[in-house]
């Protein structure tokens, strides 16, 4: 019997490879994007409270009402955009599930989907599984800015969806208001939907403001906005995310979601709802992570690495062309084994493995790990 392969181009993800290698070698793991510190004890105490209160059975498919209501309230206060908690807010098992459900809801076989690369690795496999055709817009260093004339040329009558990610993984670039205006100009008279991956919405630096697609009048009703409590509250292992979308889009989204995970862990939803009652808990994130970014950059300032400070996310890209001309994948493996610092080669985020001699480091780690990693890198 021959097993059909629906994803013949996909193997083990680079995140699994590098994290496993870091574990085997005892390296400092600045590769996979997860915090190297625990969440607020007050949040885990709330989970315990709701578990003991007996909230341990299936949650509603759409998410527990109080969490949807709190999220809608937070969104209105932060962005001035109203979503109906009953018909436009859905709690899911991680942002990756939300991306899968959103793409599946609108992409039919033969539809074209525009993807800005370097791109997070779940986007294209999801498009492939739905019979879509990825159309790549390649962003290049050092600024990774979008050339909107190139995007306009890429749009055809078969374009059905555009994937957006801001703040961006892996580059740390943040979209501007002009980017939103340019996107709106291109889609306003076309039957094109948008998936906006905004999981790092609270992690922006140097006074920047997050430009969510929901805040643009042309984009709001055609966009699935994807968010992550895991990234915001240092609880990536809980796998709790959400999708904000207009009622028609949410109805289509929920048809898929109900057959993927149906519902998300119940007591943790209640705990997050309670935790959201104090906005300071997420409003302090820009300063918290900017200090860590700056600590890492200061640590490699006298090294032979070159970098442009990340505008957002908890990733910093660094160029190593002054050190060696070896491929980024080979260097990432070598640095993990030889100096004990694991990173991600950015070529893996391009469909043709474009190698610009750049590595991505995650600085969502404790200060001692950041400083030790920077010290080891500076010796190269």
UniProtKB/TrEMBL annotation:
Cofactor(s) this protein requires: pyridoxal 5'-phosphate
Gene Ontology molecular functions: kynurenine-oxoglutarate transaminase activity; methionine-oxo-acid transaminase activity; pyridoxal phosphate binding
EC number: 2.6.1.88
Residue ranges occupied by any Aminotransferase class I/classII large domain in the UniProt entry: 28-377
Record bears the keyword Glycoprotein: no
Gene Ontology cellular component list: cytoplasm
Enzyme class: transferase
Domain of life: Bacteria
Keywords of this entry: Aminotransferase, Pyridoxal phosphate, Transferase
Record family assignment: Belongs to the class-I pyridoxal-phosphate-dependent aminotransferase family.
PANTHER family: FI04487P
Name the UniProt record assigns to this protein: Methionine aminotransferase
Native organism taxonomy: Bacteria, Pseudomonadati, Bacteroidota, Cytophagia, Cytophagales
């Amino acid at each position: 019997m021959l097993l059909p392969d629906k994803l013949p181009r996909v193997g083990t993800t680079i995140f699994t490879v590098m994290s496993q290698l870091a574990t085997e070698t005892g390296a400092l793991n600045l590769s996979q994007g997860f915090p190297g510190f625990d969440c607020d004890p007050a949040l885990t105490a709330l989970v315990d409270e709701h578990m003991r209160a007996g909230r341990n059975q299936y949650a509603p498919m759409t998410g527990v009402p109080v969490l949807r209501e709190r999220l809608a309230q937070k969104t209105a206060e932060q962005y001035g955009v109203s979503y109906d908690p009953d018909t436009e807010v859905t709690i899911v098992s991680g942002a990756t599930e939300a991306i899968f459900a959103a793409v599946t809801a609108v992409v039919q076989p033969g539809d074209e989907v525009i993807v800005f690369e370097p791109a997070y690795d779940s986007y294209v496999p999801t498009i492939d599984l739905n019979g879509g055709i990825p159309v790549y817009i390649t962003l290049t260093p050092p600024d990774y800015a979008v050339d909107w004339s190139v995007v306009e040329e890429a749009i055809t009558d078969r374009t059905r969806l555009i994937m957006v990610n801001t703040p961006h993984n892996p580059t740390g670039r943040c979209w501007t208001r002009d980017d939103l205006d340019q996107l709106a100009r291109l889609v306003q008279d076309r039957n094109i939907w948008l998936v906006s991956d905004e999981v790092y919405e609270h992690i922006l630096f140097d006074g920047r403001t997050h430009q969510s697609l929901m805040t643009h009048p042309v984009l709001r009703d055609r966009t699935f906005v994807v968010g992550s409590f895991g990234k915001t509250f240092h609880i990536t292992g809980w796998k709790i995310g959400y999708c904000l979308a207009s009622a028609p889009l949410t109805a289509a989204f929920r048809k898929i979601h109900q057959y993927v995970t149906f519902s998300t862990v119940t007591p943790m939803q209640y705990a997050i709802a309670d935790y959201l009652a104090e906005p300071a808990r997420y409003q302090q994130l820009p300063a918290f992570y900017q200090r860590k970014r700056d600590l890492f950059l200061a640590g490699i300032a006298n090294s032979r690495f070159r970098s442009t400070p990340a505008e957002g996310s908890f990733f910093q890209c660094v160029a190593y062309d002054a050190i060696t001309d070896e491929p980024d994948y080979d260097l990432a493996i070598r640095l993990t084994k030889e100096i004990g610092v694991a990173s991600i080669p950015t070529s893996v985020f391009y469909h043709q493995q474009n190698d610009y001699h750049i590595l991505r480091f995650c600085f969502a780690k404790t200060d001692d790990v950041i400083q030790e990693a920077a010290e080891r890198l500076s010796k190269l």
